[in-house]
Every structure is written in structure tokens, then in C-alpha cells.
Design goal:
Blueprint (H helix, E strand, L loop, with lengths): L1 H22 L5 H8 L1 E2 L1 H7 L19 E7 L4 E10 L4 E6 L3 E5 L5 E6 L2 E10 L2 E11 L3 E12 L14 E13 L4 E3 L3 H6 L5 H11 L6 H31 L1
Parallel strand pairs: 7-11
Antiparallel strand pairs: 1-5, 2-3, 2-6, 3-4, 4-5, 6-7, 7-8, 8-9, 9-10, 10-11
Length: 253
């Protein structure tokens, strides 16, 4: 009986020890990364002035639903299969971790690229009226020059009833996208007019001025801007190819 009692005590000790080990098992790499960049729900709600989105008409999102995607960081880390969506109003990435918690990245500056659905977003510095500001941009086409778009939304305050007008609830309305061009390692520059567009390409102003006039490029037309930037990347790649061919020929001679 004494030995039986000792064996039972030993089994209880082993069971308790195993339970303790399970409780302190480290989380997966993805969970550790995500949880280290979490903004809790209270902080998240503060970003929208403590107003629940359920009380606001319209949507602050690029796409309302979550889409499984990937996050790439400046530390060469890659996190896959995470439900993501982009909040235009807060200019941040939201994701789902666990059963149903919707969280946001607390340090988005550590993110280099986010891929989800048909969208690729990058985090970088923009130049606007001699001021710099970091944020997420949607990549429309890339190469030596990259065309970026910055979607925007406006939160309209509720209005009281007056005369024959009913009270209006708060609402989000989508603004036209703002376009930026980033050449090489330079800052992304906003495109407000055709002069801005031409000066974005200091090494090809004359040629691109002709292209813009010939093709009637419009700064508000996304397809028109994509065609222009792709044309610039095409002529730049040809110049580089010709340079290497010329050098190769010279070396052979």
C-alpha cells in the first residue's frame, strides 16, 4: 500500500508538471510578432473618437471583408495566411487573430509590404508641400518608377433636423484617390497637376512632355497614369539594356 501511495503521488506530480508545461509553451512565431504590434480595442476605438462604426453610415475600408494575405517586415520576416483589410480612415492594417478579435498593427513602420487579394500596399515616406509623412500606399505599377495611390475617406458629423430636413447620422464618404510617383530611392511625390507629373521624371522631362501631350494624359485617370509610368519604365529599361550592350561590344573590341 505504501508503494501504491507513492506511485499515485508520483503520477499526480507528473500530470501537474505536464499541465504547467502546456500552459507556458511559447506561442508560434506569427502570434508573437502579431501580438507585439497590437493596438488594443480601447486604443483602436480612441482613433475614431470613441464612435462605433455601427453608428456610422458608409465604410472606412478599402474592402469591407477580410482577405487572407501576407505581411513582409523590414527585418526580412514573412507572415502568411492572415485575414487582413485596410482601414482608409485610420490608415492602418486590421487583422484577425484568434477566434474573432479584430486588431490593428501598432507599429506599421516596421512593415515593408502587405499583399492581400489583388492589392499590394507598401509603407513609406511621402512628400507633400515640403512636408514628409509616413503611411500605406497602394502600388499600381512599379519598376524604376512606381505609381502609387492613396485612397481617402471623410467622416461627416451628424446634423440635427431643421425645416423639412431630417436629422442626418454620421457617415463616411469616399474621396477620389490621390496619386504619387516614386522614382528610384526618392520620396513619393504627390501629383496635383501636369507640371508635378512632368517634374517627377527629371531625367526624361522632354520625352514625357511629348508623351503626355500626344496621349492626353490626365492626372485623375488611373489607367492614363499607369500607361505613362509603364512607358517611362520601358524607355529606362531600354537605355540600361543599350548601355550594357554597348559596354559589352566595346570590351570585345
Amino acid at each position: 500500500m505504501k508503494y501504491l501511495f507513492l506511485i499515485q503521488c508520483l503520477l499526480i506530480f507528473i500530470f501537474d508538471f505536464c499541465e504547467a508545461q502546456v500552459e507556458v509553451t511559447p506561442k508560434t512565431k506569427d502570434e508573437n510578432y502579431i501580438n507585439s504590434y497590437v493596438a488594443d480595442e480601447a486604443k483602436y476605438n480612441a482613433n475614431i473618437k470613441n464612435v462605433s462604426y455601427k453608428e456610422i453610415q458608409g465604410s472606412p475600408y478599402l474592402i469591407d471583408s477580410f482577405i487572407v494575405g501576407s505581411i513582409y517586415t523590414s527585418k526580412n520576416e514573412h507572415f502568411q495566411n492572415i485575414p487582413l483589410r485596410y482601414n482608409i480612415f485610420t490608415e492602418n492594417i486590421e487583422y484577425i487573430m484568434g477566434v474573432s478579435s479584430v486588431l490593428t498593427l501598432n507599429n506599421p513602420e516596421t512593415v515593408e509590404k502587405v499583399d492581400y487579394g489583388n492589392f499590394k500596399l507598401i509603407y513609406l515616406s511621402q512628400s507633400n508641400k515640403n512636408k514628409s509623412r509616413n503611411g500605406f500606399f497602394i502600388v499600381l505599377t512599379d519598376g524604376n518608377a512606381t505609381l502609387l495611390s492613396k485612397p481617402g475617406v471623410t467622416l461627416h458629423k451628424p446634423s440635427p433636423p431643421g425645416g423639412y430636413i431630417d436629422a442626418q447620422p454620421p457617415r463616411f464618404s469616399r474621396n477620389p484617390d490621390t496619386y504619387y510617383i516614386k522614382v528610384g530611392k526618392n520620396q513619393a511625390k504627390i501629383i496635383r497637376n501636369k507640371r508635378h507629373l512632368i517634374t517627377s521624371f527629371p531625367d526624361s522631362r522632354e520625352e514625357l512632355s511629348k508623351y503626355i501631350k500626344t496621349h492626353n494624359t490626365k492626372i485623375s485617370d488611373q489607367k492614363s497614369l499607369i500607361d505613362l509610368v509603364q512607358y517611362y519604365n520601358f524607355i529606362k529599361s531600354n537605355i540600361i539594356s543599350s548601355h550594357f550592350k554597348y559596354n559589352g561590344k566595346s570590351n570585345d573590341e
